[in-house]
Design goal:
Blueprint (H helix, E strand, L loop, with lengths): L3 E12 L2 E12 L3 E5 L6 H8 L7 E6 L2 E2 L4 H7 E4 L11 H11 L8 H8 L15 H13 L5 E5 L7 H16 L3 E6 L10 E6 L2 E6 L1 H6 L4 E6 L3 H9 L4 E7 L2 E6 L6 H10 L6 E4 L4 H9 L5 H13 L1
Parallel strand pairs: 3-8, 3-9, 6-7, 7-8
Antiparallel strand pairs: 1-2, 1-4, 4-5, 9-10, 11-13, 11-14, 12-13
Length: about 325
């Protein structure tokens, strides 16, 4: 399924003195599952609101399936499904009433497009007479996705759909997205969870309204430029301080009860590092060479702004290939 589904060029949005989006440019291929990964305040929701024609940008151009988000917003609304980060369905309506309402405003019926949402909706259909506000987090999520899908959209925008739900519901949701992608729908999804990046075809890592890199999850990890160790010892706080003073260390971050330590160059002298830590009164020292995670890559990119321009180019090349 060739072609570009979403096109963004030099997009900027300000709220007063705050730059919410800073000169963003990217393309999303038709049929792609594309993830925006970043913490709260990165600009993900602002971007999605612009792409779904709910907010105007200050500068730049955007199109969805060839339609301009300003001049042709009506066409975009017909072909797009949007699931905002906050549960926004009518909480005093039942599950069934919400489904019928959203089908009606798009000029269709639940029965007409039931096959499209059947796999998702069947999981909540036993509760069709329950008010939406009384559903669990996982069921609210499934209802919101069903309502966003009921008019058979070509593009789905899902803003942090797994925030606030349990781990099982998160996994189920991503399995549903994979099946929707297989049907040819273009999916743009945002998340603050770094581990969800590996579930996307490509990801854009965002921070402070900027795109730090756009690539496949595998390529993001492959481009991590340093050797990396996981180190554990008794006191994580003093461990971090000692590691930051060790010669050749590039960065040190806490990951749970362990520290991820990157080194500038050369072979890691593990025995010397263990001796160093023991001399500084650290007991039960354990360390191992590890592969970087998306979160390791994010932290490195966040602290290396000079590399941003270099890491954007391969993403556009991937689309062309």
């Amino acid at each position: 399924m060739p072609g570009t589904s979403v096109h963004v060029k030099q997009l900027t949005k300000r709220f007063g003195e705050t730059i919410a989006l800073d000169n963003l440019s990217f393309d999303v291929a038709r049929g792609e599952l594309f993830g925006f990964i970043g913490p709260d305040g990165a600009g993900k929701t602002t971007l999605f609101r612009i792409l779904t024609t709910l907010l105007l940008a200050d500068t730049g151009t955007c199109s969805v399936e060839g339609f301009n988000v300003v001049k042709e917003y009506r066409q975009i609304r017909k072909i797009s499904g949007y699931m905002p980060g906050k549960f926004s369905l009518y909480q005093d309506l039942t599950v069934e009433e919400n489904m019928n309402f959203f089908a009606t405003i798009f000029g269709t019926t639940v029965s007409e497009n039931y096959d499209l949402v059947k796999e998702i909706y069947q999981q909540i259909e036993p509760f069709k007479n329950r008010k939406a506000g009384k559903l669990s987090g996982g069921m609210k999520q499934k209802l919101a996705l069903s309502c966003a899908m009921i008019h058979k959209p070509e593009v789905l925008f899902l803003d942090e759909p797994t925030t606030g739900v349990d781990a099982v519901s998160r996994l189920e949701f991503w399995e549903m997205l994979k099946r929707l992608k297989a049907s040819g729908i273009t999916i743009l999804v945002s998340t603050p969870y770094m581990d969800e990046a590996s579930l996307c075809d490509r990801v854009a890592l965002m921070q402070n309204g900027r795109l730090m890199t756009i690539s496949t999850p595998e390529e993001v990890i492959r481009n991590y430029p340093f050797s990396l160790l996981s180190v554990t010892a008794g006191d994580i706080y003093s461990l971090l301080e000692e590691l930051r003073s060790y010669p050749g260390v590039h960065s040190v971050y806490a990951f749970g009860q362990s520290a991820h330590v990157s080194f500038n160059a050369g072979e890691i002298q593990k025995d010397k590092l263990i001796d160093f830590l023991k001399r500084n009164n650290h007991e039960s020292v354990a360390l191992s060479v590890i592969e970087p995670t998306i979160e390791d890559c994010f932290m490195e990119l966040m602290n290396a702004p000079s590399r941003v321009e270099l890491t954007q180019a391969p993403a556009l090349h991937l689309l062309e290939g």
